Amino acid sequence: MVSNRSSTKGRQRKVTAREERYILRVLPNFPKSLRKVQGELDLNVCKSMIRNVMKRSGIIVRQKMVKVLEMMPHHKTTRLCPTVYLKSFKPMLTKLPLSFSLF
Question: Where do the Transposable element Tc3 transposase-like DNA-binding HTH domain residues begin and end (predicted)?
């Protein structure tokens, strides 16, 4: 029995292979926002389609953040109040030897 149907079944894809490559090329420029990617592309696709292309590719994957040490209390104070940190160094500058010149 001869069939006139093509060998592919199901719904056609909204984006072609070329458009998928283009999406993957543009994605790294906007690491946090799929809406910005959607605005940058000249394609008529929604952000969930962009997410599906990203997942299907396997190139761009979610990574676990590297853990770092906690900030010490004196680090927190210098970060929140840098003027206090700078004031603590003024006495050191006045105790320089007379032969030493800053300029």
Answer: 18-57
CB atoms near residue 54 (< 10 Å): 18
Query: The tokens of 2 are what?
Result: 């001869």
Which residues in the chain come in under a pLDDT of 70?
1-7, 82-103
pTM comes to 0.50
Closest C-alpha to 21, from 72, 60, 48, 47: 60
Using CA atoms, how far residue 85 sits from 42, 93, 95, 96, in Å, is 51, 14, 18, 19
Residue 30, Cβ neighbours under 10 Å: how many? 14
